[in-house]
Amino acid sequence: MAAGSGFTAAADASITRTLVGVTSGAYTTPSTNGMYAACYSTQFTAAAKAGATEWATASDGSYARQQMGVSTAFGWSIAAYVNSTGVVWSNSNTITVPAVTLNNQTLFALGWVDVVTLGSGNINFFFDLTTSVSVNIGSSVVLSGSTGAVFTTY
Amino acid sequence: MATWVSNGADTGGSGGYSPGTQSVQYLITNFASSGDVVTLPSGTFTWTTGVNVANAGGNLSITIQGNGYTPNTSTGNNPTGTTQGCGASPGAPTLFTVVSYAGGQNANPGGGFEAINSTGLPTTGKLFRITGINFTGITSSLYNYIAFGGSSSSDQFRIDNCLIDGGSGQKVLLLIYGNTISGVVDHCTFAGGGASEMAHNFGAGAGQIGGWTNDITPGGSQMIFYEDCIFQQTGYTSLTGQGGCSALQSYYGAQTVVRNCLLNFCQVDQHGTQGNIAARWWEFYNNTLFIPNTNSGNTSFYAIRGGSGVVYNNNVTGQTSAGFGISCNLYTDDTSSNTTYGTAPNFGPGAGIFKAGATQGPFSSPAYLWNNATVGVSTQIGSGGWNPSPILLNQNYYVSGSQPSSMLICEKASQTPGVTTYSYAPYTYPHPLTGLSTSPGSGLTAAADASIVKYTVGVVSGAYTVPTNLFLALFSTQFTNGAKAGATEWTTSSDPAYARTVMGANPTASWTIAAYASGTGVAFKNTNGIAAPTVTTNNQTCYSLGFCLASTVGVTDIQLYIDMPNNSALIIDIGYFVYLPALTGAIFTTE
């Protein structure tokens, strides 16, 4: 299955409404440091842009969504628009998910969500990995600052 | 830049500027400067004297802008689906500028007379442009509709969106001379009868060898471009071959590009040395060659009698299965007496630059032809009757199914025949002088792209401003697909009635937004019909639509844009208006 990245299907629709000023179903802009990185054991399909399975505390007791930008407001670096590239935006700071416990995990996608509670909120962006990565007990998922997840609008 | 509104006549006028009451020549002579625009209204104007684009300050590079041109319906022999020429004005009303030229005493550097002429482009860095005129009624092969040229490499030209109709009989409709000027003829329809030579590229000029001594860069800009044009032979019903009707002829070291054109039963002729100096360089590609069902003979679409270049990706439509030869004809018409330029007057095909003190070889810079479906290659000795060297495959020219990775060349003084190679790449399409996008686009503007990202992640500074309403704006140029910015909005100085038009009573009612669909994204379109104000005072050109945050004209707050498809423009005449139908007027998707 092709790996994809960008807005989820739900965000695509809500942002469109925001874009033209429709209030019902519009995108809810997150508050300061109000976005969280989440880990998924399946891909968001490139076409459907939805439906991935998030890690669960039942399998990894220490798993938790990670807030972006603890020391930097919002936690994003956003470049100016560039021809044939679009707007490049990436996470500013390193994001570290707690070390895995109980069972080895499979990482196939990352998502950014607007609440910290597992199973709640909206997944706004996603980032499929080309191939899945095994994260064994004792290991952590780490997203490097500025290069961990790069999106473009082109 | 000033706009001068004429009454459409070629001569006449007096006193100070009075919009719409004075002739084109009067406005040029008394008021215009390089960079200005002189407009003609709709209607038919019979010119008997013609217009010289010069005044006491010298020659001018100005725009002469008509009100539109007629659709391509004159012959009844056109293949279907061929509207890239005059069809570039979809939906235009039946109001056109028709210049019916009866000839006159307007001095022509080519030896005849013409409706519009310039004896040379000045070095102003401005564009010389003629657009939106239906030329008709030419009465003699001694006349041209348009003739201009010169030696300026500063000024460039564009002839676009014109119908240039020679009627029946042999005519030369457009004459361009000068080997150091460059420009483009685009979205025009040429029509000529008999053995017409609809356009002449005169290169360095009659008797001048200079066009064979300068360096040439294949795929470069220093050429005369014909693109997205229709050339059609008129008046034929049953012929054997196309009868020598030529879309264009190049002479005297001319450098010519013909691309994305329709050749309706006529040929591109690169003149040889039969009484002249041959064309120097040519690039013919992505053209459609049409043969009517009435044809019953061999047809040559490229008659190449000199110079070198590339011919590729051309295709034939119409009658292609009757067994008649359809060819690119390479032949020499050197004459035994033509030794002015060396002991062996070999101008090709397949000849390269003339170097001082060096003997010109007959195949120093071979031609390359590839991927020309159903177009064969033939060779012959021309009417000069002298054959200094046969025209041979893999010597004067190469034929292949795809572009060779490396090709021999000798078109610069620094290059060596049989040694120097190059990898060809065509010049930017559409030609930059057209102002058209390489790929018309739609969607978020660059500014909105950045602001919506900030809004999405919660960054406040520079974030997208959620509108209470969006407003429709109209643009006379495209947003380029790459930059997604920079289009020129209509102005109230040109159209006092122009205003941005609000969409619906509220955003919710203004847009119909579908659910996300795989492979499509979120399709959103205007719910209700949107009518812009009726155009007044001056005709307008609409190349793009934009949706903006504010109602104020000129404010740079465009959020979404949509270029017209196929690089086409809508010409909106006085009394007409832009209308976006409900649910189909503008559709965006996020995929």
Structural notes for this entry:
The complex is a heterodimer of chains A (154) and B (591). Chain A has 154 residues and is mainly beta. Chain A has one domain. In chain A, the strands form 3 sheets. In chain A, strands 1-8-7-2-3 form a 5-stranded antiparallel sheet. Chain A starts with a strand and ends with a strand. The two termini of chain B are 41 Å apart. In chain B, the strands form 9 sheets. In chain B, strands 1-2-7-10-13-16-19-22-25-28-31-33 form a 12-stranded parallel sheet, with helices on one face. About 4% of the residues of chain B have low confidence. Chain B has 3 helices and 47 strands. Classes of the chains: A mainly beta (154), B mainly beta (591). At the A-B interface, α1 of A face α2 and α3 of B.
The count of DSSP E runs of length 2 or more, i.e. the number of strands of chain B, is: 47
Over the alpha carbons, how many angstroms does the gyration radius of chain A reach? 15 Å
Rough outline of chain B: globular
> Which sheet architecture does the biggest sheet of chain A show?
5 strands, antiparallel
Amount of beta strand of chain A:
25-35%
Instruction: Give the biggest sheet of chain B.
Output: 12 strands, parallel
